[in-house]
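Hi P.,

Sorry for the delay on this. The queue was packed all week, but I finally got your sequence through. Input first:
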Amino acid sequence: MDDVDGEVRRIQALRALRILDSASEPHLEAVCRLAADLFGVSMAAVQLVDENRIWSKAKFGIEAECVSRAGAFCDLTIAADDRTPLVILDLRSDPRSADSPLVTGEPHVRFYAGVPLALRSGINLGTFCIMDRTPRVAFPGHALRQLQDLALIVEAHLRLHEAKRASELDASHRCAAETALRASEQRFRLLAETTTDVIIWSDLDTTRRYVSPSVKAVLGYDPEELVGTKPLDFVHADDIAEFGRVLADLTRARVDQVSSCQRYRRKDGGWVCMEVSQSLARDPITQQPTGYVTSLRDITERKAVEDALRISEERLALAVSHGSDGVWDWCVPTGKVELSEHWAAMLGYRAGEIRPHITSWHDLIHPDDSERSQRVLRDHFEGRTPTFECEYRLRTRQGHHLWLLARGKVVSRDEAGEPLRVVGTHIDITRRKCDEQRIAHLALHDALTDLPNRTLFWERLDAEIRHAARHGTRFAVLACDLDRFKHVNDTLGHPAGDRLLQCIAARLRTAVREGDTVARLGGDEFAIVLSQIRDLEDVRRMAGRVIDAVNQLVDLDGQRIAVGASIGIALGTGNGIDADELFKRSDMALYRAKAAGRNTYRFHDSPLDVRQDASRSLEQDMRSTMKRGGFLLHYQPVIELATGAVTGFEALMRWHHPLRGAIPPSEFVPLAEETGLIVSLGAWALKEACHEAASWPDHLKVAVNVSALQFQRANLEETVIHALARSGLAPHRLELEITETILMQDAEAVGASIHRLRALGVRIALDDFGTGYSSLSYLHRFGFDTVKIDRSFVSAVRSPKTAAIVRAIVTLAGQLGAHVTAEGVETREQLEFVTAEGCTEAQGFLFSPAIPARDVLKLIRDEHAVLAPACTLRGALAQAASAS
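Then the structure:
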């Protein structure tokens, strides 16, 4: 009976997931392809088991969408009570599978390995499996671990799908509850209108023309004493302002019916709390307002009971609807917080161990999450969001941190609109966060060594090239092969080789600096990006450290093994050489190192493209140009994707040399930073941009780039204040664009400066997001109004991984309340891509290049004619919408 009940629960869980016969999903198909390549098999599948069939959610090398459950191997795999994998090396020789139709007939499977896929409840819904038409002699332990790791990725997707379904059901239940509440309120209003104690007819100027006799019992007046009077003369002084607004809405026909609660003065001078229901009367023919009817009911005694009951019911409703969630109730003026037992228990505390005050709660929040949670709370308190909802970490009694989803709502405010009481819940989302982080990590890291894989290596190298081009820095690419590694594999076996690679990977991590990248590209092939080097001696020293680290003996099961490293080095300066060419140069240098006897390094022969005399000459010209005012600002429009409207412009510096012609910013800006001229040049650009923008329409903003030296050597805040005051530009129309380099200087000082600038009303944008190593942490730590996605992501529109990264950036920025601007949009395909992924703004040559200041107003007047030679903005947006 237990087996029957267990199968019934399993089928119910599978049906509830609503995933059977759904469309294929590319990332699950990719996992199947990866498994087939990794294990050298012809078939791989994500399979779900219902009553009679085995259905493939994703597959590789398998034609049929589903097969009969009878005789299927997956049926054997899910029968395990735990997550034990099932491996059958030769299906024909195993009595459990020898007669299976999948063995005796197509596809003639001979080898099978599968891992159960379970929900959070532990119920097995199906399997992730690999199959081949050739039997295996063995399936080693490391291969089984790899198969289980891939199954974890698939299982995490199913659990995310399960969470999404639960969220949808929760939203449906909330909607039904809200509908019932609205119907209940309508019935209550109807009952109140027909059972009130006092009926009054009034003109539209609020003069009373009729008062029912029951007023004598309620307020002590004869009806004739109130005829000709107005209600505001009898209402408590503290209630007059609010009741006056209610009467104005009614008598001016902005509403037809309204209910309120005021204190009325009795004839004996006492005060009575009255429930007031009012309905506008209209002429039946013209429908013009003719007056209104008021009904009054004494609710003085009931009010005190209702207030106490309402508080109790709100707490009870929260506890019932959220089950095991932690419930909290916060009195804002006093700071007192009532916490449910489960709230404390989920953090490991016993009842009464946490002082019931808001400061105790704040003390538990992770320092990196504190500022963000406070900002989200302020947004709700100030009415910018309907509810408070924030994910952050809280410290447990044991000292570690749990991820929690906090949800709450202000349920009462004072007469000034300040919050008095907030109630809400905490939900433990630690496991979901771990699953998300593990999936993201596995996609970009080598499973054996946990080093960045080939994909992440190329992303880091591209980012370093862009950083060097923007800031004039240098870097180096090292291609590294292990010497004598093949001998270890051949003599001691692949498991020993794997342990050796893990040991070498750990040593390489310690040999380089923080901020450098060590990646495993495959086999015994490693690659290193040395970021922001000063000179060749830096590179030589680092290459020597890598070789010394690898040369140390490795103990493998009692045998001391010696390997070496050969290294090829290519130098990069951001001078137009792309990542492929740089790595090719390092690879060529690697062959020279091997030819030189191994266990050494060699540089590529090409010299660095820097000449000191040319730099000195350009510096002199730059100083001369600054004196005579020869620099210009051009402006590139920023487009709102939802409407196609211009929302502002980015100010970009231009220099037209009298002899050399136009000199690109990538050449003179790094030199200006190196010589310190960028401080004066940046101050001029800020003042000039504010001056120009002051003449634009009030809804347009201007963005100005700020360099690291402006934070280090100048009082940037004074410069900004002076530029705004001199130009008359409103602070919210100025946006300062900063890069990760600025944040890396002195995070505490820079953060304080950023917060003071935002307090002035100035907007802050994080430029080139996604190209640095710590951008994600900075996005959480500092408050940004805009996140600008680097053009490298926009140009890689056909990459699924790029799309996933952009989608994640948009989602994260949206949760933090920031706009997302896509830079470098140059084609219709790129426009469709950034629109589909949820970016809010875009800029690039598809719309317009940077234009002189004199053409800005013309562009604003006629954006269709100026924005883009290839197509008009709205035409491109329409094509993107129809394509999606």
